[in-house]
Amino acid sequence: MTIPLALMVYENLLPGSQLADRMKERGYRVIVRVGSEGLVEQATREMPLVVIMDLAGKQGDLCPAIRELKSNPATSHIPVLAFSNSQNASLQVAASEAGASMVASDQAILGQLPALLEQLLRIE
Length: 124
What we know:
The protein is an alpha/beta fold. It has helices at 13-25, 39-46, 63-71, 89-98, 106-111, 113-121; strands at 5-9, 29-33, 50-54, 80-84, 102-105. The mean pLDDT is 89.
């Protein structure tokens, strides 16, 4: 049996580490990255079930990485769940426009992770 993989991009320990722990509790293997350099290459190699990105990183704007993931034929099918502080609405809009499958606030993602994953991974 293959254990599903979540590829996570975050720098801030909270909520990043809490989210990684919750993903592990749900049965996922978790690979944590800091920054987006090489993200598409790693996603192509590892084929995660989901990519989860904290938009509030100090490494810069992650929206180009979302756009690159979604435009690459090898990774375009991988759902991207992006999150940030609810006060950063412009960043959330930018992530959605870049192709994120779902954008949530950091509080919502922690409080509603099972429901968000179910909705994100629903096959239509």
